[in-house]
Amino acid sequence: MKAKITLAAEMKIGSIDRRMFGSFIEHLGRAVYGGIYEPGHPLADEEGFRKDVIELINELDVPIVRYPGGNFVSGYNWEDGVGPVDQRPPRLELAWGVTEPNKFGTNEFMRWCQKAKTSPMMAVNLGTRGPDEARALVEYCNHKNNSKYSDMRIAHGYKDPWNVKLWCLGNEMDGPWQMCAKTATEYGRTANEAAKLMKWVDGSIETVLCGSSSRYMNTFGDWEATALDIAYDNIDYISLHQYYDNHSRDTKTFLAKNLDLDDFIYSVICVCDFVKAKKRSKKQINLSFDEWNVWYHSNGAPFERWSTAPDQLEDIYNFEDALVVACMLITLLRHADRVKIACLAQLVNVIAPIFTKTGGGAFRQTTFYPFREMSKYARGDALRPIITSPKYDCKDYTDVPYLEAIATYDEENDEVAIFAVNRSTDEKMELDISLLGFEGYRAVEFESMDGYDVYKENTFGDEGVTMHQNPLPKVDGSSAVAELQPLSFNVLRFKKA
Questions:
Q1: Fewer Cβ neighbours under 10 Å: the N or C end of the chain?
Q2: Is the Cβ–Cβ distance between 344 and 24 less than 8 Å?
Q3: Are residues 471 and 443 in contact, defined by beta-carbon separation less than 8 angstroms?
Q4: Within this chain, do residues 332 and 466 fall inside the same structural domain, yes or no?
């Protein structure tokens, strides 16, 4: 099988915001307790943060982490999670049916972010609470001193403000599973007033409006248009959430699901631009894809109700899942002009690339690797490639290209990176690469993830599904040829000699 990709420096989609490689920590399962925070663990530091987990997060190079939810935030009283730990009340946590001990809260998260070399993306409760509590939390986090909530933070032992710059206005508020779910009009008015008050406290912050929980909700489209119409002037981004599964065990269809993702993103962009045109505004609303992943292995797994930090939503990912994650990342980069923030949901244990044993070790899931490679090398501008590829049909899609690919150009470091998936289950692909305007560039790395059974998983002591090095393709003028194995994720990097 033969395919071709043509690149040119002038064919820019848009600059890549580093926040596209963000992640997500919710008070859910063992994401916090037993994940990032485990006092008494042999590798925990003096504040209870697991250093082995921080090392893996640093390897992923995650620039932002969304917190504290998720469904959890719609019933969260942030005051329960600050102040002396021994005075914090345990709460019945209705989103996930567990008991929240509140041993880890806002200040612990901020300290953890510092140690993990990441930045906070805070969410406020617009379910059981509202604009007043939201502006109070901004004051607590960002105001210097001499006010009720800034002085409260100082009394809790944190003199300097945290200066949180990115704030989510609730979570999935059209979902009937959400505490105090709202209509689009109800939510739009609440979000608008919250954003207004929050920005009156700190005019430097950015806010994210909740989009519909999924493109498959009956509310999708109308929700975005209505809420945006109300809150347009006080918000900066609108959120998207999407997960994919392979319950049917149909590899060809599963590997094509990012085509649905591409259409979803385009649809939301159209709604944003419709509202912009309607308002005759010069302001552009960009996208925050702050929940995305493969999720289906652990759905419905039993746990003890009202227990603390039970095993919940602990997907163990396989090679096939990693290829889909790679395709989803490629799609996000394809929309780098409008998708400026994205959060892989989640970061540790709960549908996550990092998995730990409480009291024990940690390992990299299969999905860790495509995220790491693209977080590390997708820098500068996303390029719009011209791709020629054979295609196939499957159960849900037609004309699916066997080659899924994107390229980036880091002008500052004179580097071009190509990220490519060969969707074919049984054929190698001869990829003809045309580097127009990149004369004098040579290949410096060719990594791939291939050769595994689609259901092969990683586990403690066996991270067998990983990246490996390949011989470098020779560049002849502006052309190169690389061989992509069947069912493979590939990273090719070229640098000016």
A1: C
A2: yes
A3: no
A4: no
Residue 484 near residue 431, CB atoms below 8 Å? yes
pTM over 0.85: yes
Provide, for the chain, the percentages of residues in helix, strand and coil under a 3-state DSSP scheme, each rounded to the nearest 5: 30, 30, 45
Instruction: Tell which of 345, 377, 409 closes a domain.
Output: 377
Active-site annotation, residues = 172, 291
The 10 Å Cβ neighbour count of residue 458 is: 23
In the block, which residue shows the tokens 């074919």? 424
| Alpha helices for 73-172 (secondary structure H) | 106-116, 131-142, 148-155
Quick one: 372 and 403 in the same domain? no
Question: How confident is the model over 109-168, as pLDDT tens digits?
Answer: 999 999 999 999 999 999 999 999 999 999 999 999 999 999 999 999 999 999 999 999
**Total tally of structural domains belonging to the chain:** 2
In sign, the C-alpha dihedral spanning 137, 138, 144, 148 is negative
Strand stretches in 304-424, DSSP E: 339-344, 354-356, 362-364, 381-383, 386-388, 391-392, 400-401, 403-410, 415-422
What is residue 333's DSSP assignment?
A: H
Rg of the chain over Cα atoms, rounded to whole angstroms, equals 23
